[in-house]
C-alpha cells in the first residue's frame, strides 16, 4: 500500500472520531501528493490539490521544503497547475512563515527575471521570520548593487511589515462564557492525561473542559446564538490558568473561540479572549500574548465594606464579597481598544489598560508576540545595513527609573541582562525590556509543541548566546508506553540536533535519564545573575531568576536567546524566631503562605510578583523547595538571597552533578556542559576574591510588600488542603487553605501516599529511610496500611543513597523497585498496601500517566492539588490530594490515617529534619 493510501486509511479512522485529516508534515507524503497533482487524470488529483493548498504545516517541516520547492517551480513556469497560478503560489509562500519559503522567495527576488523578482520582493516585505543566513544573502545582494535587495531592505528599515498591517478593531463585541467557579487550572483546558496528543491540535482540542461534552456543546450553542461576537472564557471568582503555562490550553481555547491564523494552515487559531475575577495567572498570560490574545482582570467581585469603609467579614473571618457587575454566561460586553475600557452597552464597567498596554496592542496587531520580536531584529538589521538611524515604529521600551532608589535582586538581574535600553539608565520595576536568556529548559510533554514552534519560526539551531539548554524526559518517566515510544525519541532527536542537552541520546550512547527537569535546571544554573526560561510553571531556580513559560516562549528563547517582559515588583520575605526540632522545612514553606494571607487580610500579595526570599544559609537543593512552591503562591517567580559561602557550596554541588552528566557522555558537540563548569569556576573565583559577591538587593530597594515569617508560630506540621467539600465552590482546590496537623484529629483516612516530585531532595529520601527504621524499632515491624509511592527526583540521588546505604534500607521495606532495563509499559490502575520505589521523574505529580485510584484521599509531597490532577473523583467520593512534608506522608501511609502530634513526634525522633537557620544579618548591599 502506498503512503497516500495509508493517509486515506488514517483519514477514515479519524472520521470515526469526528476529526478532519491530520495536517501533513512529512516530505514523502507531500511528494506523492504533488505527483498526483501533476497527473491531470489521477483519480486523487482534486483531493491532492486541497491537501497541498490547505493541509500542509509551514515553517521548517520536511513537507514545507517540498511545498516551497514546488511553488517555486510553478512561479518559474517549470510546472503548470491550472488551479495554482504564479500569483496564488506567491500567496501560498507568504503564509509559510519562514525557512524554505524565505529561501525560495530570496531565490526569486534576487534572480534574473525582473517581473518575478519584483513580485517576490513585494511578498518578502511582509515577512519577518528571517535568520542570519537570510539576512546575509540580502546584505550581500545589496552590497552588489541589487535594486530589489535595496528595495526590500529599505522597507524593512521602515518596518513596513508591521506598519502596513490592519489596525486593531476599535470595538470588539464579546459574549461571556463562565468556564468554572474559582481558580481554573490549565488542566481543565488541557488535561495532563492528554499530553500525548498536544501536537495533534484538532485531536487535543477535544479534551477542552476535561472532555466535558455537555459544557463543550453549551459553548457551541452560545457561538451559534452570537455568530457576530467573540466568546470570552471566564474564571468566575477565581484566577484563570493557574497551574502551568500550558500553551496547549491556550491553543485549545483559541481553537474553540479564537480567529483562524491562516486560511492555508489547519487548526492553528489565535487571539483568544480570556478573563478571571482575579485576573490571569502570570505565566498563562504570557502564553496568551504569544497568540495575540487578550487577558482581562475583571475584578467583578469586591470586598464588601461597612459605612466606615471597613471590610465586612464572615464567621470564618474571611472577607464577604459582593458582585460589582455580572459576567454570567451569555452577557454581551464590549472591549474598547482605543479607550481601553470594558463596557456593558453604554455603561463603563472598568478600565482595562493593563490588558491593552502599548506592547500588548502590538502583539494583537501583529497576531502574536513572535512577529514583534523578529520584526524588531529585522528592522535593526536593515537600519545597520543602510547606515541610517533606527526609525521609532514600535512602542518604546518602557523605562522606569526612580532617582535615589536602590535595586531589588530581580531589578539588578534585569539591568545586567537588558538589551536595547538607554545606555547608563538604571531600570526599576514597571519597565518593559528585552533580556538575554542564559539557561533554557524544555520538558517532554510540551517539548513536541516547542519543536513545532521552532519549525514554524524556521529556526534550525540554538542561539549562540544561550549558555545551556536541556530537554527532559521526566513527565513520561513513569510508563514507557507506546505513546511515549512514538513521541519521545523523535523529540529527543530534534532537540539534540538543535543543540540541547537531551535526557535521552538519539543514538542510545548513554542511559536514558528521566530526572525532574527543574532539578536538572537548578544544577545547570551556575550563576546567581542568570535568567532562566523553562517550559513548566515550576521553572523556579534557587540561583538566578527563573520564569515558567509556554512552549512558544521557550522556542523563542532557544532560537533568539532573548525574552521580552516587564520587570516585576518584588515582595521581600525574611524570617525571625527559631524552628522546632521536629518541624520540616516544607512546613516553613506552607507557613509562609498562611502567615502572608493572614497579615494582608486574605489578599495574596505574592500574586504576579517576585518573591525575594532571604534564605541565606540554605543550599540550592533545600532552597529550591521554597522557590518551587512559589508557583502555588501564584508568584511570577522567586529569587533566593544567599550568603557567599552558601552560594559557593551550591555551585560546587552543581559542578559535581554537571561533571557526572559529562562522564555519562551527555555533553554535545558544542561542549555546553563543559562550558557551564567554566562559568561556575569563574563565578566562584569572583565571590572568593570579593570582586563580585553573591547577589543581594540594595538596602534602599523598594518592595511592593514585606513579609516576615515568624518561625516560633510553626508548632505543628502544615498541610495544604484542597477543601473539596467547601460550600463556596470558589474556595475549593486553591493552595491557600493551610491547616495544622491537629485539625484532622488523627482520624482522617489516607488511601495513598506519594513522596516525590520536584519538592523533595536527597534529604527527604534519607528521612524516609530513617523513619522506616524508627517505626520498626517502635512497633517491631513496618506494615503499610496504605500504599506509599516513592519517586526520587534524580538518578544522582539514587546513586548517592546507594553509596550511603539508605537505598538498601528502602529496598528492604519495598514491594516494588524500578528496573530501567524493563520499564513499565502500562500504567497502574490499582495499588497494594506496600512501598513502591518508582523510576526517578514526576510520577503522580504530573497526572498524565499514573494516578491514584478514583476517590482516594492522597497525602503527597508534590505541588498540585487541583481536581483530577493526582486523583479523579469516583461516583461515591471526591478525590483529594493533600500536600505536606515527607514525614507526614510516610507516617500517614503506615497508619492509614493522619497521625496525631504524639505519633508524629515519636516517628521523627532523632532525625535532623532541617538545617535551616535564618540569617542573623541583613542580606543587603549598602
Beta-strand portion reads 15-25%
Helix tally?
31
Structural class: alpha/beta
| Total beta strands | 33
Mean pLDDT: 93
Distance between the termini: 75 Å
Largest sheet: 7 strands, mixed
State Rg.
Answer: 28 Å
Topology:
Blueprint: H1 3-15, H2 27-38, H3 45-54, H4 62-75, H5 86-94, H6 100-109, H7 114-124, H8 132-143, H9 147-157, H10 160-163, E1 171-181, E2 184-185, H11 186-189, H12 201-205, H13 213-225, E3 230-236, E4 240-242, H14 247-257, E5 259-262, E6 265-270, E7 273-276, H15 282-290, E8 294-297, E9 301-303, E10 321-323, E11 332-336, E12 341-344, E13 347-351, H16 358-366, H17 369-386, H18 409-417, E14 418-419, E15 432-436, E16 439-442, H19 444-456, E17 468-471, H20 482-498, E18 501-502, H21 517-524, E19 531-534, E20 545-548, H22 551-560, E21 562-566, E22 570-576, H23 585-599, E23 610-616, H24 620-629, E24 637-642, H25 644-663, H26 672-689, E25 705-710, E26 718-720, E27 738-740, E28 752-756, H27 762-779, E29 788-791, H28 795-804, H29 806-813, E30 814-817, E31 835-837, E32 857-860, E33 880-883, H30 886-895, H31 901-907
Parallel strand pairs: 1-3, 2-4, 3-7, 7-8, 16-17, 16-19, 17-18, 19-20, 22-23, 22-25, 23-24, 28-29, 28-32, 29-31, 30-31, 32-33
Antiparallel strand pairs: 1-11, 5-6, 9-10, 11-12, 12-13, 14-15, 15-21, 26-27
Helix pairs in contact: 2-3, 2-4, 4-5, 4-6, 5-7, 6-7, 7-9, 8-9, 9-17, 16-17, 19-20, 19-22, 23-24, 25-26, 27-29, 27-30
